[in-house]
Amino acid sequence: MTINYDELSNQILALDSQVRFAGVANSKGEMVAGGQKDDVEKILVGDEVSMSIHYALQKRDLYTNLEYKIGRERSSITEYDIVTMISIPINSNELVLISTEPRADYLKIIDYVHSILDSKKTVE
Predict the structure, then answer these.
(1) Which helix (H) or strand (E) holds 57?
(2) For the segment 24-57, what is each residue's pLDDT rounded down to a tens digit?
(3) How far apart are CA 14 and CA 93, in angstroms?
(4) pLDDT digits (tens, 9 = 90+) for 87-106
(5) What's the start-to-end Cα distance of the chain, in Å?
(6) All domains of the chain, ordered by start, with CATH?
(7) Nearest-angstrom CA–CA distance, 54 and 59
(8) Residue 25 in contact with residue 46, Cβ under 8 Å?
(9) Fewer CB within 10 Å, N or C, the chain?
(10) pTM here?
(11) pLDDT confidence of 112, banded at 50, 70, 90?
């Protein structure tokens, strides 16, 4: 699957005014693409961003242990008081990370990302 991760991140950012951040992290916890909208205040900075990525990867790994029973993870949503965090696995090595304002239509966002990822799978 060949996906331009910067383009994907920009499409997610443009999709909804409620999206604050969109990017792709690899299994080493490094951001390989994406970023935050210019007009929003950063909530996490420095090591806090790294911790957030680490926790998202850790959560994915935990659910992978149950994959044989419940199927593969399609997305994960965590709602906090001031932000909603969404993670969507691309493959076993990469994860789309999105943060939104509280109460954003995250199912619309998740469906949009899946439509892009699924279209890339069918092309190859």
Answers:
(1) helix 47-64
(2) 999 898 999 999 998 888 898 888 888 998 888 8
(3) 25
(4) 999 988 899 999 999 989 99
(5) 7
(6) 5-123 (3.30.450.30)
(7) 9
(8) no
(9) C
(10) 0.89
(11) very high
d(CA 3, CA 51): 26
87 vs 92: CA distance, rounded Å: 13
Phi-psi region of 29 (alpha: psi -120 to 50; beta: other; left: phi over 0): left
Residue 52 in tokens:
């957030």
- Count other C-beta atoms under 10 Å from residue 3's C-beta: 18
Q: Kindly state the tokens that stand for 117.
A: 């990822």
- Residue 104: which residues within 8 A CB-CB, separation 6 or more? 16, 18, 19, 84
Distance CA 18, CA 103 (A): 9
